[in-house]
Amino acid sequence: MKPTDVLWQAVLEREQNPNPPFFYAVKTTGIYCRPNCPSRRPKRQNAAFYASCALAEADGFRACLRCRPNQQSLQEQTTSIILNACRTIETAVAEPRLDDLARQSGLSPFHFQRTFKSAMGLTPKAYAQAHRMNRFREIVGSGEGSITTAIYDAGYTSSSRFYEAATQALGMTPKRLRQGGKGVRILFAIGECSLGSVLIASSAKGVCAMLLGDTPEMVLDDLQTRFPQADLIGNDPDYEMLIAHVIQFVDDPKYGFNLPLDIQGTAFQQRVWDALRDIPIGTTASYSEIAEKIGAPKSFRAVAQACGANNIALAIPCHRVVRSDGGLSGYRWGVERKRAILDAERKAR
Fold this sequence. Notes:
Helix content is 47%, strand content 12%.
């Protein structure tokens, strides 16, 4: 567990979802509680901390009757309902009806939809659509069967419904996705900066990737993995000039990044990425704060997943998102790089 001073602060602030979870016990009453229990706070010297209910009970403490720490909290119940609904959507042959999902959860359709959207940042219908598109991507990427077969295997009832949104969601036509990006022209350049090797790549729309790594070979392999059959064009004299701008931006963030971006992702991911770009240089925000900003206050886990899916390092500043206690969480390009980027931005502010 964390140092007891940090745990005590979480108790004082009635933290809703401490990470990692813990319980506190009161020596004078013999009761143990959740950190967010509404009961009166004990004196600091009378508090003890436990990683589980079993450990607290082994020391002779009994569960609080107000916050009921030995039972599922309302938040845990809601999480269980949403996870079960997600699994139902993902395993269903046809898209489940809202009324059926609500009945399964024990909630009214209106309450279920509002709860699901608050937790996931998407309505059940939008989640089902995103899942089908991801399933199509996986089937096509495996190279098995035709595009038409993949459309129906992914759960679409007609090809016309699939093609309505496919190109925008996939970032290219289904045929080009099947071909590993074949026919997509991507210019790229690699340089060295204070963070190691950096690669910038652009489609006709704008920058589609900015990758960091320890060596030029590492970042190039990363790009080739994303577009195994795309026309990757390096050593273009005009495009090579951009790498100097990128290195200047990386090493001295006050110069900013003004190149157009080709951002491809789900509607929820794009909302998260837009919110990240609004975080001022030299400052940070927590996953919960980003979730609040995009109007989905309970979807902080989905926010974290969207940060991890970001392909454009620095320009979409997922490095500015930290844990609620200010600690640095995982970063796709390494926590040490994340720390170095934030330090550089604070100095440049």
